[in-house]
Amino acid sequence: MSPLAHLFALPVRAYRLLASPWVGHGCRFQPTCSAYALEALDRHGAIRGGWLTLRRIARCHPWGGEGFDPVPGRSDHQCDHRHGR
User: Fold this and answer.
1) What does pTM read for this prediction?
2) Quick check: 1 pLDDT over 90?
3) Residue 83 scores a pLDDT above 80
4) Which of 7, 33, 68, 79 has the lowest CB atom count within 10 Å?
5) Domain total in the chain
């Protein structure tokens, strides 16, 4: 995880430590939004992972759906570009 992604992950970790036990475990999605955020930041970095996290949180409302919603993987083009291929 990049240093900026670690910084973005701090509020998520604080939420999981301090607020999550009080809010309860009624999440509409699997994985939970906080687990999704940490995985997105780890897999995609601060900018794209942050954007994916914001999109996921925006879908968390009564008409936003539910169920299994994994973090999308990197496309082959992005992987090739990062490895200089």
Assistant:
1) 0.81
2) no
3) no
4) 68
5) 1
